């Protein structure tokens, strides 16, 4: 795709099309390739600031969309947002009151990078695991999960964990990802919901 996805052109395209950041194209690319969203899906977007994925989601589904972030997000028509930590049980309870059932959970969040590879990767994997735990609490049977992560020594263990919870799991590097970045996305479809009361005597 060449220069179409260079840093400057992606930013320019995003500005021209009214998106809040170039990250919009990552979700558009993922959905075009994997079809994670249906026209009536309810979606929760974790780490949603500044709201570019929320903009894409609003264009792709007529369902309820809820965004959660530590930072406040400028209002978007047809989108509900919560300012808080998605790992907080109170925030999770608030999400459930706003949307049920949830068909898709997306997470494009990442920590501020320090430049120390092993440290940064440990932090992103920690966020990934928390996002997966959130998804396990809120996704309906057969739901989908998309999460940004980084390649590194902890990546395969987390990937295995996701595979234990979804029937179809793919690793995908979007066309809008900057050259040289270790950023990648895990696209997980068809959640295997294990009921808490499914134990046998």
TrEMBL record:
<keyword id="KW-0949">S-adenosyl-L-methionine</keyword>
<dbReference type="InterPro" id="IPR029063">
    <property type="entry name" value="SAM-dependent_MTases_sf"/>
</dbReference>
<protein>
    <recommendedName>
        <fullName>Ribosomal RNA large subunit methyltransferase E</fullName>
        <ecNumber>2.1.1.166</ecNumber>
    </recommendedName>
</protein>
<feature type="binding site">
    <location>
        <position position="51"/>
    </location>
    <ligand>
        <name>S-adenosyl-L-methionine</name>
    </ligand>
</feature>
<feature type="binding site">
    <location>
        <position position="53"/>
    </location>
    <ligand>
        <name>S-adenosyl-L-methionine</name>
    </ligand>
</feature>
<dbReference type="InterPro" id="IPR015507">
    <property type="entry name" value="rRNA-MeTfrase_E"/>
</dbReference>
<feature type="active site" description="Proton acceptor">
    <location>
        <position position="148"/>
    </location>
</feature>
<dbReference type="GO" id="GO:0008650">
    <property type="term" value="F:rRNA (uridine-2'-O-)-methyltransferase activity"/>
</dbReference>
<keyword id="KW-0808">Transferase</keyword>
<feature type="binding site">
    <location>
        <position position="108"/>
    </location>
    <ligand>
        <name>S-adenosyl-L-methionine</name>
    </ligand>
</feature>
<keyword id="KW-0698">rRNA processing</keyword>
<dbReference type="InterPro" id="IPR002877">
    <property type="entry name" value="RNA_MeTrfase_FtsJ_dom"/>
</dbReference>
<comment type="function">
    <text>Specifically methylates the uridine in position 2552 of 23S rRNA at the 2'-O position of the ribose in the fully assembled 50S ribosomal subunit.</text>
</comment>
<keyword id="KW-0963">Cytoplasm</keyword>
<feature type="domain" description="Ribosomal RNA methyltransferase FtsJ">
    <location>
        <begin position="19"/>
        <end position="191"/>
    </location>
</feature>
<dbReference type="GO" id="GO:0005737">
    <property type="term" value="C:cytoplasm"/>
</dbReference>
<feature type="binding site">
    <location>
        <position position="85"/>
    </location>
    <ligand>
        <name>S-adenosyl-L-methionine</name>
    </ligand>
</feature>
<comment type="similarity">
    <text>Belongs to the class I-like SAM-binding methyltransferase superfamily. RNA methyltransferase RlmE family.</text>
</comment>
<dbReference type="InterPro" id="IPR050082">
    <property type="entry name" value="RNA_methyltr_RlmE"/>
</dbReference>
<feature type="binding site">
    <location>
        <position position="69"/>
    </location>
    <ligand>
        <name>S-adenosyl-L-methionine</name>
    </ligand>
</feature>
<dbReference type="Pfam" id="PF01728">
    <property type="entry name" value="FtsJ"/>
</dbReference>
<keyword id="KW-0489">Methyltransferase</keyword>
